[in-house]
Amino acid sequence: MNTENQTSKVALVTGGSRGIGRSIALNAAKRGIGVILTYNTHAEEGESVVAEINRNGGKAVALKLDSAKVGSFAEFSEQLLQVLKNEWNRENFDYLVNNAGIAQRTRIQDTTEAIFDQLVTVNFKGVFFLTQTLIPLIVDGGHIINISSALARAVFPGVAVYGSLKAALEGLTRYFAREYADRKIRVNTVAPGAIDTEFGGGKGDENQRKQIAGMTALGRLGEAEDVGLFVASLLSDDSRFVNAQRIEVGGGSFF
Ligand SMILES: NC(=O)c1ccc[n+]([C@@H]2O[C@H](COP(=O)([O-])OP(=O)(O)OC[C@H]3O[C@@H](n4cnc5c(N)ncnc54)[C@H](OP(=O)(O)O)[C@@H]3O)[C@@H](O)[C@H]2O)c1
To answer: pLDDT band at 2, cuts 50/70/90?
Structure first.
């Protein structure tokens, strides 16, 4: 537990069932933050993160969310409000971490409209409309963190749409920070480097992994915990004057 009194704070972490989101949820809970995490297809993983947090003396709830279904966000917001009222006796929350995302490796030549649309919907459109829908529930002075990628800047074959969408998300971060400045809501981007999760089918064979490690100043792939620890620490008022920024968590990658 940290020394800061954060027992009454509540964070919503999308895609908190696995990988980086799971680590963000666990580390936020370790800091005394109540956690509402979302899963899409892996309900059991979502519930196991909740069980781990509860076992360790924290408080967490899992909700289903499909970021591709923008039409379901109003109903999700109502469910969220119910959970906040029932579990925390509140009608708002403090921190939104837009972490859920997907990747699909395809060269530009082979990118179909269906692949393009799916990537746009989950990684960009979904984040925009979910944040728009939930921002009335976020407290004034709250904090939104959008999870981007080193690939928003570094350019590799096979991730043109994904990387471009993460760059767009970084732009969106600054626009949200501008438009919600009147409510003192901070909006920042955290951009992980190559992190060893199942994302996009994982980080490949031993050779590919060595190659990625070789492109990283600290000489290794990142772990979900590397990002989870940082995002959980960034949520708090320790970073109270950090706003509209992009911070890379990649061990010095691809530079
Ligand atoms: N791993 C990396 O190398 C890396 C690097 C840079 C940035 N990132 C970013 O970090 C974030 C998390 O990645 P990760 O590595 O933790 O991936 P992951 O292990 O594949 O986990 C993805 C999470 O997102 C959820 N999700 C996927 N599609 C969704 C949808 N349509 N609606 C709602 N939730 C959905 C998943 O839920 P279910 O499993 O329940 O379906 C899961 O909780 C992503 O935004 C990714 O772009 C990852």
So the answer is: very low
Pair of tokens at residue 200: 């996009």
CATH number at residue 142: 3.40.50.720
Q: What is the pLDDT of residues 204-238, one digit of tens each?
A: 899 999 999 999 999 999 999 999 999 999 999 99
pLDDT per position as a tens digit, 80-96: 999 999 999 999 999 99
42 CA: nearest ligand 1 atom? 40
Mean pLDDT, residues 58-72 taken together: 98
Cα-to-centroid distance, 14 and ligand 1 (Å): 9
Give the catalytic positions in this structure.
Answer: 162
Range of the domain at 177: 10-248
Distance 18 CA to ligand 1 centre (A): 7
Does any domain span residue 3? no
Note the pLDDT of residue 10. Answer: 98
Domain count, the chain: 1
In a domain, 163, yes or no: yes
4 occurs within a structural domain: no
106-122 exposure pattern, b = at least 16 Cβ within 10 A, e = fewer:
beeeeeeeeeeeebbbb
Give the Cα separation of 6 and 236 in Å (integer): 8
By the 8 A CB rule, do 159 and 115 touch? no
Give the integer Cα–Cα distance in Å for 184 and 191: 23
Parallel, antiparallel, or unpaired: how do β-strands 186-192 and 10-13 relate? unpaired
